[in-house]
Amino acid sequence: MTQPVLDVQDLRISFGAHEAVKGISFAIHARETLALVGESGSGKSATALSILRLIEREGGTIGGGSIRLNDGDGSHDLRSLSDAQLTALRGNAISMVFQEPMTSLNPVLKIGDQVGEVFIRHRKFDRRKAMQAAEEALDQVRIPDPARRLQQYPHELSGGLRQRVMIAMALACRPKLLICDEPTTALDVTTQAEILTLIRNLQAEIGMGVLFITHDMGVVAEIADRVVVLRNGEKMEEASVHDLFERPKAAYTKALMAATPKPGSGTSTQQAGTETVLDVEQLSTRFAGKYSLFSRKSGGVLAVNRVSLKVARGETLGLVGESGCGKSTLARSILHLIEPESGSVRLDGNVLNSSSRQALRETRKDMQMVFQDPYASLNPRLPVHELITEPARIHGLVSRKDQKELAADLVERVGLERDAINRFVHQFSGGQRQRLCIARALSVEPKLIIADEAVSALDVSIARQITDLMLELQRTEGLSFLFISHDIGVVERVSHRIAVMYKGEIVETGPTEQILKNPQHPYTRRLLSAVPNPMPKQRRKSAEAFTAFPQESTTLAALA
Fold first, then answer.
1. What crossing angle do the helices spanning 111-122 and 159-171 adopt, rounded to 10°?
2. Which end of the chain is less congested by CB atoms within 10 angstroms, N or C?
């Protein structure tokens, strides 16, 4: 058998006294994709950073084991290389694509400068030749109008295009090994499908090995040849992707499989009421345009265009669509966190009207929101008992004397221990923080909760716990949910009905089973065709080019 591109043996990584990775071993060959899976804290990203020898910058140390890279010019012991030798290899023989391209790209440099730097540094090109190579690199990853993109800044591109820029930079020098650390987690399903297909096709062309880190078992089934399952820094299991999905051996692997939403696995069986809680009619929201030196303000962007929808008591309406289609803008417009241009919103028959601040404040009490990032949503300086009762105090529903008792009741309702009320946000895991966000929303006894990508950043098992909690609260308290997500599997599990949003409009609405089994709108059909199926036998062929349904972006970035 040929020599592997990457050979890791008995790797051990520590952060102070904590051993984060405990003697794991694996190898990756040319044109092979190895998926590294497991929950947050399992050691996946620490392993990736140690291969690039960046773990030291994060406060970690490699305590043992070997990491060998075979790049065709010889075998390199990455642990023994100097900083100068490592710099020569990074971005050249070995590259990495990170989860969030906006934090990986320099916001004050144009795309051309950032992609061109790779060629200047590793290929010793002059600036003119580097810009030509950068344009070709953007074209290779199927970025439209690459010459224009070179002159743009990262914030002017969509999330999917920014991720393609990162891939273009990573592949610029045709590396022998590409490390992808959750590169599609924050992307909608159509963009995700494009990125996965792109990586597979470029892998076949370049012949590189790929280490793909993810917690999404659907993505694993779509892209991996072999899988290593990690838990608490230890290797639980290693197998081919087909063997792992058909015959998992480790109990932890079986639990991961059980927590993964599967297409056709059924929808919410809880009975929804017939009384309307939320009634949105012809709602439109426009973002203001730009002023230029020689012209008046432009007409702006119509981000939400005459949207109408209803949510009944005890019902969950799933709202799906690509990034930039207007889902989050619609949610904020419903709450009047963004002022709509026209249309009406009624909650239990009461009209939300920004002209009466007091009335709006009273009505908002019955409608709460849970955001994607629980850490950014919670004040790190407040203890939990103050944090989750703050809305109730604002609305005069609880006194400071009684807030601890209310807080204890709330944390128990969301499945946490009573003594959690005296801790701070940083002392909780991501899933526990999201439970605190739900507890905070429940403090004012709302009739409707808008969940905006509330589980998209969570591991599959944690996401399952949160959706189980939502279903239980719906059963016991009759809560209604507007559930916004790009994960069709999760939407199928929790939603009674689905509304599909495209270019600021609702293009299709209906019962969940009907939408998923018999979609009528061509965009809905395209959206569903992009969902990764957690069954390796049904993956798309690597040669297939996935072309997303044409979308004219409705974001402000499109004006640039």
1. 10
2. N
Nearest residue to 505 via CA among 312, 279, 290, 326: 326
Structure tokens at 344: 């009406």
Give the DSSP H or E segment for 169. helix 159-171
pTM for the model: 0.79
96-109 pLDDT, tens digit per residue, is 988 776 678 999 99
458 falls within a domain:
no
Q: pLDDT tens digit string along 119-168?
A: 998 889 999 999 999 999 998 887 888 999 999 999 888 777 888 898 88
CATH number of the domain that 63 lies in?
3.40.50.300
Number of domains present in the structure of the chain: 2
Provide the domain limits for residue 244: 6-101+175-258
Strand partners, 90: 94
Two tokens, residue 120: 């200047």
Q: How far apart are CA 376 and CA 450, in angstroms?
A: 17
* Cβ–Cβ under 8 Å, residues 285 and 456: no
Residue 536 CB coordination number (10 Å): 20
| Residues 384-389: contacts with CB under 8 Å, at least 24 apart | 384/411, 384/420, 384/421, 384/422, 384/423, 384/424, 384/425, 384/436, 385/421, 385/422, 387/425, 387/436, 387/440, 388/421, 388/436, 388/439, 388/440, 388/443, 389/440, 389/443
**Which of 471, 507, 476 lies closest to 492, judged by CA?**
471
Give the whole-angstrom CA distance, residue 436 versus residue 430: 10
User: Cα–Cα distance between 368 and 443 in angstroms, integer?
Assistant: 10
Q: Which helix (H) or strand (E) holds 280?
A: strand 276-287
The token pair at 183 is 């590169």
CA 21 – CA 351 distance, rounded (Å) = 55
Q: Hey, what are 373's tokens?
A: 């990032």
Where helices occur in 367-502 by DSSP H, the ranges are 374-377, 384-387, 390-394, 403-413, 430-442, 460-477, 488-494
Note whether 93 and 13 are same-domain residues: yes
